[in-house]
Amino acid sequence: MTHTPDLEALRREVRDFLRAEAPANWRDASRTQDDFVATQRQWFTKLVKAGFAIPHWPARFPGGGRGLAEQKVIYEELAKADCPRLLLSFVSTYHAFATLNECASAEQQAEYLPRILEGETWCQGFSEPGAGSDLAAIKTRATREMRDGREVYVVSGQKVWSTMAQFAQKCLLLVRTSSDGPKQAGITYLLMDMDAPGVSVRPIHQIQGDEEFAEIFLDNVEIPVTRRVGEEGKGWAVAQTTLASERGLTLMELSYRMRGALARVATLIREHGHDEDRGVLRDFGELATQVDAVCAIADQFLDNRINGIERMGDASIVKNSYSRALRAYAKLGLRLGGMAEQYVAPITFGDLNTGNWMADFMNSYAWTIAGGSEEVQRNIIAERMLEMPREPKGWVI
Fold first, then answer.
1. In the chain, pLDDT over 90 holds for what percent of residues?
2. Which strand (E) or helix (H) includes residue 107?
3. Strands 187-193 and 199-204
4. Catalytic: 246?
5. 17-35 b/e with 16+ CB inside 10 Å = b?
6. Same domain, 206 and 161
7. CATH code: domain of residue 343
């Protein structure tokens, strides 16, 4: 990718901002969920004000309208400075934005997009018990009725694995309005208020101590028909826009963030007296090479997108290579940290590279599922990129 004077000027601008405003000791300030939320909101507000929070949004928004090369510069510098990722607002600025920007009415865009920049948080109500990888199998029902002079959808059902739902004010919701025809055909896409009567949220306590996900229970929740995105029964196509938003630049940012986090592994090597341990140094060298390869793959993906030659499966390659490197990174850190890291280190909420090696190690395996399981990504690569035969239905080992 060409290094132009404009890109170098942007890089200096971002670095100057980070020297003045990057949150110090943010891991220590994220030891509880409440502290994590406060830290996230403060950092998001600063980035919005500086114009670095939403470079992928249109130019009419502060800091928006930047090209892919400019976005890469911003994410590189944020990763190098080891700033906290915007996890609390991630669904809002990527999933909700992409859906509203590409599929919603002008009135819906005007109502919701500015409020995201004011701190309104969104969650995603897609997956259900029994409808995860097979998302089209959702059973949450919505019936269209007239109530108190209003035309509404009355929704009942359950959603699961909704990121940060316990902190959200709005929800991107998939519901079933018909069982006729193919299962994808009866899905409708709604925008739901999380404080609506009948909505209850229960955080899921994870094995590493975090509560990143939650269940959402819906009991006769009324959602105005005006909150529908697209046509009734055509929500599956809208959902594809939502799901596509979390690939690409997000994976590039994560890759560069992991490269910066290698410094913490090097610190462990020195602190535990492994400076001359050839076995440890070999493993560290292999990890550094693997992480560099992931960054190179992400760079190639971005270059393909800039030049309009992105292929179906390119994002899947980045995703799988990143998830494998993340497991290797966390495994080596956990091994070097010894018993102290496994049993004593406090939990840090809200990142994949927290420096708490036991939590990071357990969380690294979740990344093989999040955003589309590794097996699904392999099928995409095999069938859509390599044009291999489709996997037979009902085939099992």
1. 55
2. helix 106-117
3. unpaired
4. yes
5. bbeeebbeebbebbeebeb
6. yes
7. 1.20.140.10
| Residue corresponding to tokens 């070999």 | 282
Which range of residues forms the domain containing residue 178? 119-233
- CA 212/CA 189 separation, integer angstroms: 24
Cα 258 to the center of its chain, rounded Å: 15
**Does residue 395 sit within a domain?**
no
Q: What is the dihedral of CA 202, 204, 209, 210, to 10 degrees?
A: -80
Q: State in Å, rounded, how far the first CA of the chain is from the last one.
A: 44
**C-alpha to C-alpha distance for 164 and 145, rounded to whole angstroms:** 30
> In this structure, are residues 235 and 174 in contact, taking their beta carbons and an 8 Å threshold?
yes
In total, how many domains does the chain have?
A: 3
Looking at every residue in the chain, the average pLDDT score rounds to 88
Q: Closest Cα partner for 94 from 57, 41, 48?
A: 57
Pick the catalytic residue from 77, 212, 215, 246. 246
Residue whose pair of structure tokens reads 């004011």 in the numeric block: 118
pTM, two decimal places:
0.84
Tokens of 164: 């940060």
φ, ψ of residue 368 to 5 degrees: the values are: -75, -10
For residue 54, being part of any structural domain is answered with: yes
Largest alpha-carbon pair distance within the chain? 77
